[in-house]
Design goal:
25% of the residues lie in helices and 37% in strands. It is α/β, with parallel strands linked by helices. Keywords: Metal-binding, Transferase.
Length: 131
């Protein structure tokens, strides 16, 4: 067995690198770490995201096997302002804002339909509420 030390990075396929970069910068406050020809590495609250451009990519189908969504922890104090910002920037909200699993949650999509979530709770709180 390998001893995993942590999560290194998440790679997200996008159809247009510049559109995706602006979204992640303006919505998640992503900071640029590296920009290549077809990839961009971003730092989002200490998590590395790699956006990789796939030309002529097909949208993800909800019934497809693979990653369902990415959830980012936000403070309860900033949650409602974050939701307000999503609405102001005309980001598609697909669920919420609601209290679920011990915290506030809102799910939304990036320009390519990748699902993201802001969540104020912790894994411990979620499991305590679902036990």
């Amino acid at each position: 067995m390998v001893k995993v030390l942590g999560l290194n990075h998440i790679t997200i396929k996008v159809s247009d690198i510049n559109t995706a970069y602006l979204f992640y910068q303006h919505i998640l406050g992503a900071k640029l770490v590296h920009k290549g020809n077809t990839d961009i590495y971003l730092d989002v609250g200490g998590v590395w995201l790699c956006l990789i451009e796939i030309k002529n990519a097909k949208p993800i189908q909800k019934e497809q096997i693979g990653v369902d969504h990415f959830a980012f922890t936000v403070s309860e104090e900033s949650f409602h302002k974050a939701v307000e910002s999503l609405s102001e920037k005309q980001v598609t909200i697909i669920r919420g804002p609601i209290v679920r699993g011990g915290g506030w949650t809102v799910s939304f999509t990036d320009p390519d339909g990748n699902e993201l979530e802001f969540y104020t709770g912790s894994l411990y709180e979620r499991m305590k509420n679902w036990s």
